[in-house]
Specification:
UDP-galactose 4-epimerase, domain 1; 39% helix; binds NADP nicotinamide-adenine-dinucleotide phosphate; alpha/beta; 2 domains; globular; seven-stranded parallel β-sheet; 10 helices; Rossmann fold; binds ligand F7E
């Protein structure tokens, strides 16, 4: 079989780095689109940077995306790039709409005009369910987004469905629930907690300030989710899938387990700071991934408890050299 080429937007992000590793293992030629920066943003892919090709493009720039697709001639495109931090979507709502919403249309237009046989994965989100209309949430649960990010993702989701139905493009949307790892950005709550716990354990800091501890999320491991993205593009028919573990936990549960992993009591260190509350909160997410289980044979392998432990251990190892003597 000839080698397949995959184009990943957002290759420098958490998911992009895991997906690039996974596709290299499958024998793909991997090309990553990155936006120009004056600093090195390749931290998460440093270990594979010589194995992938990096091309310069931006979700805001149609011509860059069209010429990348024409030049690279990918078999598959994984559109992972986005403004993905929910709080930033209230402070930069228009930019979030441009990146996270219209950016999807730009890539689909590039496919439509250059080669409509290219297969396309869109990184949709459980944030689209927002104020949930059913528990658990499945592919048929109506959307009710609660942030400009969620609203932009709903647009990205439906434009993907629309290009599939209008132009017969193999375009699919993975409605992924929260997935985390030691590569998660430190502004997201799980990594903020694992990083904070490690700092407190090592005596680098003494307190951890968090927002709403009651929010509940269906948290999985990012490495499991990128496998599902690939599986979705190998199917005979294009379709959308919820990707989730089916278990939900509160932020407080995550905090408690993370502190327990280093033998500390969370109540002695965590301060609830209303600065981290959101204008509108998503209270409870829990996904029903039975369709992905059935049709793709996909199942997440890392449990919530393993995930918390792994993240804390990784941050402890990273920060140990900075501990006071
Ligand atoms: P992430 O770590 O925030 O990575 C986002 C990526 O997008 C980075 O590589 C970033 O590049 C790139 N990017 C942002 N704006 C861009 C632009 N204008 N042009 C080109 N690239 C741009 O996000 P992630 O956690 O890996 O998530 C991947 C995708 O899945 C995102 O679309 C996210 O919204 C979605 N999603 C994530 C989760 C989750 O739990 N992780 C769940 C559901 C959906 P820089 O390095 O230059 O910033
Ligand atoms: O917040 C609460 C916060 O920022 C989770 C993105 O990948 O997953 C992610 O979005 C919960 C929220 O992720 C703090 O209020 C409490 O209820 O880690 P997060 P998110 O908003 O769920 C979805 C699926 C995506 O698609 C997104 O791209 O934790 N929380 N205290 C806090 N959150 C943060 N960030 N910081 C706190 O101090």
């Amino acid at each position: 079989m000839p080698q397949k080429t995959a184009l990943i937007t957002g290759i420098t992000g958490q998911d992009g780095s895991f997906l690039a590793e996974f596709l290299l293992e499958q024998g793909y030629r991997v090309v990553g689109m990155t936006r120009r920066s004056s600093t090195d943003v390749h931290e998460r892919i440093q270990h594979i940077v010589d194995d992938v090709t990096i091309v310069s493009g931006d979700l805001l720039d149609q011509s860059s995306m069209t010429s990348i697709v024409a030049e690279i001639k990918p078999d598959e495109i994984y559109n992972l790039a986005a403004q993905s931090f929910v709080p930033a979507s209230w402070t930069q709502p228009v930019l979030t709409g441009e990146f996270t919403g219209l950016g999807v249309t730009r890539m689909l237009e590039a496919i439509r005009t250059v080669d409509p046989t290219i297969r396309f994965y869109q990184a949709s989100s459980s944030e689209m369910f927002g104020k949930v209309q059913a528990v658990p949430q499945s592919e048929t649960t109506p959307f009710y987004p609660r942030s400009p990010y969620g609203v932009a993702k709903v647009y990205g989701h439906w434009i993907t469905v629309n290009y599939r139905e209008s132009y017969d493009i193999f375009a699919v949307s993975g409605i992924a629930f929260n997935h985390e790892s030691q590569r998660r950005g430190k502004e997201f709550v799980t990594r903020k907690i694992s990083d904070g716990v490690a700092r407190i354990k090592l005596g680098i800091q003494n307190e951890l300030r968090l927002g709403n501890l009651d929010a509940q999320r269906d948290w999985g491991f990012a490495g499991d989710y990128v496998r599902a993205m690939w599986m979705m593009l190998q199917q005979p028919r294009a379709d959308d899938y919820v990707l989730a573990t089916g278990r939900t936990h509160s932020v407080r549960d995550f905090v408690r387990l993370a502190f327990e992993a280093v033998g500390l009591r969370w109540e002695d260190h965590v301060i609830v700071d209303p600065r981290f509350y959101r204008p509108a909160e998503v209270d409870l997410l829990v996904g029903d991934a039975s369709k992905a289980n059935r049709a793709l044979g996909w199942r997440p392998e890392v449990s919530f408890e393993q995930l918390v432990e792994q993240m804390v251990v990784a941050d402890l190892g990273r920060l140990r050299p900075f501990a006071p003597a």
